[in-house]
Amino acid sequence: MRVLITGAAGFIGRHLHRRLLADGHEVFGIDLFPTPLVRGRDALELFRRPERHRGDFDLAIHCAAIVGGRARIDGSPLSVATNLGLDAWYMRWLVHARVPRAVYFSSSAAYPVALQQPGPLRRLTETDIDYAQPGRPDATYGLAKLAGELLCAYAEAEGTRMTILRPFSGYGADQDETYPFPAFIRRAKTQQDPFEIWGDGSSTRDWIHIDDIVDATLTAVDQGVQGPVNLGTGRATSFDELASLVTEEYGYRPVFKYLADAPQGVHHRVADTTRLRAFYKPRITLEEGIARALSA
Predict the structure, then answer these.
(1) Among candidate residues 296, 133, 267, the one with its CA nearest the CA of residue 204
(2) Structural domain total, the chain
(3) Residues 236 and 206: beta-carbon distance below 8 Å
(4) pLDDT tens, 59-93?
(5) Whole-angstrom Cα distance, residue 196 to residue 41?
(6) What is the Cα–Cα distance from 41 to 260, expressed in whole angstroms?
(7) Which among 51, 44, 43 is positioned nearest to 13, based on CA atoms?
(8) Exposed site from 33, 91, 164, 276, fewest CB < 10 Å?
């Protein structure tokens, strides 16, 4: 296939880029900023001129977004909100460039924050987002992703078959340290003691390895899955437990130091994976992912 990947220099984008190239596809990578990987190609510049690429691509995968971990989501809401415009330009480009198949990476942040509060664990299912009455999502990042999902329906109506994916806490050895998993790995490798944890350690997340995100995405494309589909494992892991797993794997036992004033996000964010497991079952356990990252 001839494939466009936006955000090709980002975490998910670069892994998809490498995999598609390895599988023999012709891949055209663009990003929001010039990088060596994408040879200076700018996503917005391409989106403004869809007529130049009419009929050029069999598939487009949209990973580009302004984000940067919890500190960026909470600390720079206006910059993150520019994803609204980026996604609108992408959908318009799909229609005018006549791209037959496309993937939109939404996010678990699109789910209502009211469903992710302290109390009994509630796994989030795709139907928890009612487009008619969606509920308040997580910050401007979640708001933009929710709007992007709504825009997918318009692109679909104009002839582009859309696949909507909602990743939960994706992780891997080469992820930016503004995210909690690589930050924990770095703290273990430097044997930080006390070991810092944002919040009180009881918040839970659903960690899914980047290899499983890539495999699930390409399987969804291959099987014509439209979604929305949660990309997660269904396993709830607290930050306390994650810190314990990481430090035990590295072979030391530090004191945990809790930073109550640090950005924390929602309390529980764990996926119901029923839809995902109908076509793909995640393969990499969190323990294996930790071992890989610590040995990288």
Answers:
(1) 267
(2) 1
(3) yes
(4) 999 998 876 555 555 556 666 677 888 899 999 99
(5) 39
(6) 41
(7) 43
(8) 33
Residues with Cβ < 8 Å from 244, sequence gap 6 or more?
A: none
Q: Does residue 54 contact residue 97 with C-beta atoms inside 8 Å?
A: yes
CB 228 within 8 A of CB 107: no
Compute the average pLDDT of residues 14-38. Answer: 86
**What residue numbers bound the domain in which 57 lies?**
2-171+208-234+268-284
Q: Determine the pLDDT at residue 68.
A: 59
Return the closest-CA partner of residue 109 out of 85, 87, 138, 81.
138
AA letter at 13: G
- Provide the CA 195 distance to its chain's centre, in angstroms: 26
CATH of the domain at 40: 3.40.50.720
CB atoms under 10 Å from CB of 99, counted, come to 24
Q: How far apart are CA 20 and CA 29, in angstroms?
A: 11
Does residue 277 form part of some domain? yes
Identify the pLDDT of residue 295: 96
Does this model's pTM top 0.85? My answer is: yes
| pLDDT score of 80 | 64
Question: Does any domain span residue 63?
Answer: yes
Mean pLDDT for 23-32 is: 91
Instruction: Tell me if 9 sits within 8 A of 52, measured CB to CB.
Output: no
Tell me if 183 is assigned to some domain: no
